[in-house]
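Continuing from the previous page...

OK, I double-checked the sequence for Toxin-antitoxin system YwqK family antitoxin against my notes and this is the correct one:
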Amino acid sequence: MVNLKVIINIILIFNLACFILGSCTDSKTQKVKVYYTTFEKKYTIPQGIEVNGLKQGLWINYNSIGFLQNIETYVDGLVQGETVTYNEHGIIVQKAEVHQGKFRGKFECYSDKGVQTIKGIYFDNKKIGDWFYYDDNGVLTEQEKWDNGKMLTKKVFKK
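Thanks. Re-ran it with the corrected sequence; updated structure tokens here:
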């Protein structure tokens, strides 16, 4: 079933495509491909674009029944900015900040009920600072302290 998010995303991706195509100032010919997702054999929705073989701009993936699966933004073929991943019912299960294809910044995971289960920070794919782990009810169960991808301390909390 097509929902409002899907319609908004269709508009966003075509606007982004127009922006990218309009901003190509290089005198060389640009090879642009637009990718689509088809589901239920009746809906075709834009998924993303490539310019000269590299993913560019907003890319949206859908599951087989039309719910969002993930949203990522690409710059010259590398993921850049916030990525969002959804479960099969369209509920957010992960949010992450990415810079040039590497985790850099906030990282959060959620249960299928939408309750936060993990919260921490990455720098170039390495955990840094405090990481928090919660059960499916949102109760803190563990806390870790990281430095440059190495765990310094770990606390386990009893219920």
